Structures are given as C-alpha cells and as structure tokens.
Amino acid sequence: MLYKSTRGYEEKVSSASAIVNGIAPDGGLYIPESFPKLDLDKCLKMNYQELASYVLKMYLTDYSDAEVNCAVYKAYDEKFVDEVVPVKYLEGRSVLELYHGRTLAFKDMALSILPHLMKKASKKLGVEDEIVILTATSGDTGKAALEGFCDVDGTKIVVFYPSEGISEIQKHQMVSQKGDNTYVFGIKGNFDDAQSAVKSIFLDDALKADLKEKGYQFSSANSINIGRLVPQIVYYVHGYLDHVRKGMLNLGDFMNVVVPTGNFGNILASRYAKEMGLPIDKLICASNENAVLTDFIKSGTYDLDRKFKVTNSPSMDILISSNLERYLAFIGEDVPVLMNKLKNQGSYTISPSGKEKMKDFYASFATERETVLKIKEVYEKEAYLMDTHTAVAQVVYDRYLEDTSDDKPAMIASTASPYKFTRDVLKSISDDLLLDDDFELIHVLAEKTGLEVPEPIKYLAEDLVLHPHVISKVSIKNTVETILR
User: I want to staple 236 with a disulfide (CB 3.0 to 4.6 A). Which of 110, 219, 273, 397 is the partner?
Assistant: First the structure.
C-alpha cells in the first residue's frame, strides 16, 4: 500500500514515510492509492484489538505483523475502562461511545496508537533527527496528543490552542500537562488561525532546512496525518459488528452513521470504512453554527465568507475543514485548483459530477439552544447524558428523520464525555447552577446524575498550571523557532 498527495505530487510513499512526514511536500495530504476490502465474517470473531490489527495491517503494509500488533496492544490497553468502545442502545438509535480513554475524547482512539506507529516508522526509515510534533487543537486533540507523546524518546510536541472558546476542563487538561518534551501555548485567535500557522510552518522550506541542521524534523498529530485517520476507521467497523452480534442487524444489512464534525476527519473515516465494504448507507454530517460543511454538502460550494462563532460545542468551532481535501480527491475533484481558489478567493465550487457523488451524505446543523434542549430532552426521557457535541449530532439526526422518514438503524458517534463540558451540560439539565468553579461543577454533575466522575479528571483541579503562556497568532512560528534553538 502506497500513499499519494491530494495535490498531485508524483512521488508515492510508504505508510511509514507518510506518518513521519505528516504532510506531503506540495502541501497536500496523504491518501491511500486504493482501499482494501473487509472480510466481515472474519471480523465478527474479533475483539477490538484484533480488529484494529486486522484493519491497520491492510494499510500499513511496510510494517511487520508483529510491529502492528505491538502498537495496537500498547495503545488499547488498561487505560481504556472496560470496553475500548462501548455501544449504547437507545430508543431508535445507538451511541458509539468513543471517549473512554485517558483524555475523555474520541481523539484518544487514534492518538493512543500514533506515537507507537511514528516511533516504529522513524526506526524503519533510519530517521536520526528529533521529531517535532506541531499540533493545532480546537480543544481535544491537544491533550490527547500531549498524553500520547509525553516523554516519548526522540520527540518534542508543541500544541497551540485558542485561549478563549474552549471549556475550562479542556484548557486545564492541556496547561497542566507534564513531560520534559511538552510545550503548550494559548493563542489570541481561533482554531483556524492555529491550524493555518502550523500548515505554513510545514511548507516553510527555509525553516525546515535550518532546523534540519540542528537535528529536527517536523511532523503532525492532527488528523492531517494519515496515521491519525486510519485508526479511526476501526471503530465504525467495530460499531457495526456490535449491532450484528447483539441482533440489531443481520450481517450485510445497511445502517446510517451520524457524526458531529468540524475538521471532517471523523466522518471521512466512516466514508473510508464504507469504501472498504462496511454496509453504511447515509453519512449524516452534523455541524454546529459554524455550518460551513452543512452548506458545502447541500450546495457544493465551500465559502469562508462568514462570521466565526464561539459555541457550546467548541471542538467543532472550525471553518477550514482540512480533511475535506481528502474527500475532494476521493470524488475526483481537481484539488490543487480548488485549494488555490480557497486561498485566493475564499471559496470554491465543485463540479456537477462531484456533487452527484456526495449523494450518500446528508448535512444539517444545530444551534446552541437546540443543543441545550436536546441534552435535557434525552436525559429526561432516556436517562442518558450527552455532551454538547453528541447532542448536536442528535439534533441533526432527528431532523434527518423528519426530512426522510428513513428508519434504518443509525449509530451516533459520541465524541466526548459530558464531563469535558460540565458547565454547559449541567446548565442543560438543571436550573440550579450557582457555582463559578468548573472543577466543583464536576462533582455537582456527578451528584445530580449518579454518574461516576471519570478517573482522569477526578483530581484535575489539583494539577498545577505548567504552561501559562498565551501568545499572538502571528507569534506561532517565532515561538517554535525559540523552542528549537
């Protein structure tokens, strides 16, 4: 299996090279040149770790079976409570709970394994430089990446997050991160500002050459890294098979998936799973009020001419959806032309044939008020507590049912624990919100709902702030240079 750039760079590379480089030399993202097919009968007998090994071996063909197995079993170990990815069955749909890792967000599913894959890739390629992981985060990737790469030999990790607009729990998880190789900075700007700055550093040949002399090489832990994206395919296969094992589906029956997304990586992983033969019918793309993806899927036009909104589902507060570039390549669009239009004109429109190929997508968005009301409704009716991002997905799924009456089984990807957004979740289910301290609210939420506080944040308030710095968005490159002097 070789990987090519979405922007047409001719050289194809191994998975190890794609993972270590993070981004192609022409600024494109790496994509597989073909999609292997799943043997679902065989998969039915596998637990999560076995399934992950099976899927990853099809994409990481330059890794030995032993290397893949080692990475999988180190990643998906006792740090995941009980099942790695439980599926909860509610009335008329299921919830794929992706947040039972160390940082309580779905990013753990890929970022627990990426450091192991990257370390093995570096050894394979004979990379002697120290790898510097540059990461922009809208709230969840940062902590998961920091946790994964903390004190990993031969690496440094630098994370940039918007200083305003993420939850206090998300922020404190990052700024209290330990590790001699970890660097965390808030920026006076939004996620798109951080992501654009990080991408520009990857394309700065002069800077890369200068740092090469000092023994450094850049890579990424964002979902622009194919090593982040491929492990996400696994949990959609796992979720489908769980339905079959529990008699909710017969093997081969179709299901719909509902994914709250801002950067398009998570829902793209489900589309890749479909391409591999997983019986998915509709891919339901759920946005918050930064509804650029909703508008694109409905119209075929991607337009950045809109106001960026800070919402109560901050991990989706994104206007520049990087992984959409991979999907554009997948449906045969001229990616370099479209990316050039986006850079210079702020918008692009895909071809009629490309629009036709998006028919398996449905898209809509949820307002903040709709999100709050949906958390309350589901909790009161079904005693199930959702975080704000999962509630966005539920709002959009309910709208899909109204629009289509399509009642085939649907699985909602739940991307974060309600405890990561304690204040907004508690406001949704209670009128009695008097405390100013978000860390105290963790225990109020536990008392009100009877849900046990997850171990990773039980004593979070006691963790010291180790990374207090907030910088301007124009200082990101200089900050990286300063760290690496």
Answer: 273
